[in-house]
Amino acid sequence: MQTPSGTAAETQTSGRSGSPLARWLTGPRFARLPSRDAALPPPLLSFEFFPPKNQAMEDALWAAIRRLEPLAPRFVSVTYGAGGSTRERTHATVTRIRAETSLTPAAHLTCVAATRAEVDGVARAYWEAGIRHIVALRGDPPAGIDPSGYTPHPGGYAYAADLVAGLRRIGDFDISVAAYPEMHPQAASAAADLDNLKRKIDAGATRAITQYFFDTDTSLRFLDRCHAAGITVPIVPGILPVTNFQQVVKFSAMCGASVPGWMAELFQGLEDDLETRRMVAAAVAAEQCRLLQANGIDEFHFYTLNRADLAYAIAHILGVRPARKAEAAAPPPVAKCASA
Ligand SMILES: Cc1cc2nc3c(=O)[nH]c(=O)nc-3n(C[C@H](O)[C@H](O)[C@H](O)COP(=O)(O)OP(=O)(O)OC[C@H]3O[C@@H](n4cnc5c(N)ncnc54)[C@H](O)[C@@H]3O)c2cc1C
Prior knowledge:
TIM Barrel, 13 helices, single chain, disordered N terminus, alpha/beta, 9 strands, binds flavin-adenine dinucleotide, nine-stranded parallel β-sheet, disordered C terminus
């Protein structure tokens, strides 16, 4: 039976005007969510960890590494604490990954609070230990030490571009650098920041990894600008699955990443509900990656915070499977018909 739309009773029950069916049928329509062409290989992934501070954290890190290892990431990277505070722990973690796993480790290295000779010494030690991939960064001083934000060490590498050039003199490293879709907070302008990224690549960087972002449009426009500036190396999106929303809001204010209003709405009311926050985090990050995939991007770098579960689930949604299982699941080769 047809009923007139917009009756008081309907508005009361649905909270909106118009019959539900009319609303459903007059809104925008999507036949399906954008999906990856199944004939294409799955995306290439990399995972970022931080060096553990104690045995419990070490155990958690290694459980994460072991869980993610079968996904055969392109590389896994280990961060360098603010002010170079984790120099030994970063080195120990990276060299253990190289010694005990099938993974390719990358060591983060910064310019902060060290002379060129000291930084070169760390890089040489990596080269001698067989580490061939460095994530070269300017770094940030430990909080409170440099109120102006950053002052180069008088005898050190001033900026990441200088460090990249220094590393090139030491060995034929694979060098990743940082990129900022929403601009580095200390950059004079977006154009100056892009010039800086170009300088890092011209100095010898082979890839950029972006600061995390949540606004896919902004990141795609940034890629357009990189391309227009003549950058040809991959600018790999850095993906942060968000479980602690309040912490991300605080951190984003410092690092210049914007947090859209829709995220606040998604996490509203979940302050004491970690389990649901984790499910929401996986869904949001997977959707972000799928949108980027639909726009042609096929490499992702995950900020794992030393946990495997979210990265693993998102990787699965993106079509990445453990190497051995993928082989076993592959359809048997089809015998070709002899042509008549
Ligand atoms: C993927 C990724 C990984 C990271 N890993 C770590 C880590 O392990 N440890 C850590 O401490 N931090 C890390 N960071 C944070 C990073 O160190 C900070 O964002 C830092 O403030 C900038 O580092 P950068 O390498 O981008 O610096 P740079 O590329 O040197 O740029 C820093 C700022 O200086 C400006 N600039 C560059 N050259 C000049 C110049 N000649 N004159 C004036 N201004 C200039 C740039 O425009 C920019 O605003 C990481 C960031 C990302 C995105």
